[in-house]
Specification:
The protein has nine helices and five strands, in the order H-H-H-H-H-H-E-E-H-E-H-E-E-H. It is of the alpha+beta class. It is elongated and about 65 Å long.
């Protein structure tokens, strides 16, 4: 039975229009972008198969070439949707008092860094009222780590005329616990940036679940 033969309130697009995107399952959201199935399968069936094959939405949508089972057109649509979401977050983050809630930084950084299969170190550069100036990914590495160079972080802070910075990096393993190396580089960066009057407000580690905040752990 095709989706057009389903009850109207169960069809993904109709459900989205009537109840909003949050009412859709992951498979139904994928179906909206996939458009159609084939060989006796609906787009929702294809979405379910993709989620099962790739271990869930997070791994399916990681940056990569076209995934097995996803056509090039559908893949482009999915990647475009992800980028729209990131750009929406960028615009939202530049609103006054966007970081009034400390958890807002963690949510934003998780959205930006969570999908990478390798480690990425990034910075949020802030002015003296803690408004966002820019977000930059400064260093990329392997699944095990990325080399972080304090001099480059200092240089970028000066280039942006930043008064404060929030550091972040992801753990591709999904375990968001700080390592000894994470703690050491955080203190090195804090001390180096203090020499140019830039405060390190926090360092987030992004993994599965809630990001780990160095500030909340008392590690700064």
């Amino acid at each position: 039975m095709g989706i057009r033969e389903w009850p109207e309130d169960e069809r993904p697009r109709e459900k989205l229009r009537a109840r909003g995107a949050t009412a859709l399952s992951d498979a139904e959201l994928l179906a909206v972008f996939i458009g159609s199935g084939g060989r006796g399968r609906t787009a929702v069936d294809v979405g379910r198969d993709l989620l099962a094959t790739h271990g869930g939405l997070r791994d399916l949508l990681r940056p990569a070439k076209v995934r097995k089972g996803v056509g090039a057109v559908a893949w482009c649509r999915l990647q475009a949707a992800l980028e729209l979401g990131r750009r929406y977050l960028d615009a939202e983050l530049r609103e006054p008092d966007a970081l009034a809630d400390p958890e807002a930084s963690g949510r934003y950084l998780k959205a930006r860094l969570d999908a990478y299969p390798y480690e990425v170190f990034a910075c949020l550069f802030l002015d003296n009222r803690h408004r966002v100036i820019a977000f930059e990914e400064l260093f990329r590495g392997t699944i095990d780590g990325a080399s972080v160079h304090p001099r480059e972080v200092v240089r970028q802070c000066i280039a942006h005329n930043a008064a404060a910075v929030i550091l972040a990096h992801n753990h591709p393993s999904g375990i968001a616990e700080p390592s000894a190396a994470d703690r050491a580089i955080t203190l090195r960066l804090r001390d180096a940036l203090a020499l140019v009057d830039v405060r390190v407000l926090d360092h987030f580690i992004i993994g599965h679940g809630t990001p780990t905040s160095f500030a909340r752990r008392g590690l700064l």
